Amino acid sequence: MFRDTPKIIIEDGSSPSASYIMYVRMEDLLEKLKLLHYDIQFLPEFKIKAINRNYFVTQTNPGEQFYTFTSLAAWLIRKAGGNFKAPQESDDPNATIAIILDYLRDIHVPIEFPPNKLKQGSGEHAIYVLDNLADEALKAQKFQWKKVEISPDEPSNEPEIEDDDAELILEKVEEEMMAEYDDEDEDILHVDDITKLYGQNFVNINEMQKPDDILESKTNREEWQLELERVLPQLKVTVKTDSRDWRSHIEQMKQLRTNIATNLTGTKNQLDKLHIDISNTLDKVKTRESYLNRQLEPSLKEYQMLQDELSKIKEQYRDTSGGVTERTRIFNKLTEELEHVKKEMDERGSSMTDGTPLVNIKKTITKMKNEISEMNIRIGVLEYSLMCARIRDRTQLQEDMNNPNATTIT
Fold first, then answer.
1. How do residues 42-100 score in pLDDT, each as one tens digit?
2. Which of 122, 141, 160 delimits the end of a domain?
3. Does residue 110 form part of some domain?
4. pTM for this one?
5. What range does the domain containing 397 cover?
6. Are 94 and 36 a contacting pair, CB within 8 Å?
7. In total, how many domains does the chain have?
8. Closest to 101 measured CA to CA, from 75, 62, 129, 80
9. Which of 31, 102, 209, 314 has a CA-to-CA distance to 299 between 20 and 30 Å?
10. 45 in any annotated domain
């Protein structure tokens, strides 16, 4: 049967093994290419070296890897029955990738990555594309994966232990286990101790002293009775129990099995009833859940629309809040200027209503008028003095001019 599911599935993408899944898929792809005889048909045709198991995993030479990737994809498409000519190095890479992805969509292969991821010619997306194309080519070749047949294990020849040997071994083990325990009461005569101490001697003596005829007792009955009463307290037989004895374990296991079988009947009925109740409850929950989903579907759609509108309104609010912040800053600046102007107006208003400056001005004017009057008087006196001096000088000059004999004053 052809394998329709991936060879390796990673459920958790964040697990430590997820980073190595490409290596496993690349090895799987290489096995499929070998099944398609790419080394005989593909490599000689395009004159390309053999692809190693890590060729498309790591990026080494993007140009060479992209050419190999597109050529191999075209060859696999032709093997699958498609019509795709071998790409040339001068072809548009976007057009080549588009043709490959269109073919994958035609064969219902999900494409969940952008086309530019394939331009490198390596990586998990390139391996994914080639792996799906190889699967399609194997389907076209009617190749079938066979299940691995595991031969049944041959029965091992275990040595058979005879019953007599087993009994001897068991008796030996019991003797060793009993020998580990010491007698707690030394005054008590134990049959086991007598057997261990004199058993072998008794056997040898009995074998040596076997009579040929039937023995007859010559002991007096009364003496034998007295001797028996004397040694009877010492003939106490004790049986030592060992917690490690397998017989006690078997008895305990049988008892536990009986208890389990007895209690299992009632418990099983209760568990079956509980299972039925849980199944009915789960069915009711599923039915109720489906009903609620149908009832809440319009509300959920409306809620989604309101969420979208809320997102748009929030975006508008963020844009508007930026303008509000700028306007708030301008408003604060204008408020400060207004406060400054108000302060100046208050100062000027208070100075206009106050009469003290006017009185001071009047006093100053009066004082200045008085000073001007004094200055005018002084100016008049000085002008008079100057005029008198000029007249005197002029008179003196005329007298000097009229008197030629006067001596010139230098």
1. 888 878 888 888 888 888 888 888 888 888 888 888 888 888 787 887 778 888 888 88
2. 141
3. yes
4. 0.36
5. 365-403
6. no
7. 2
8. 129
9. 314
10. yes
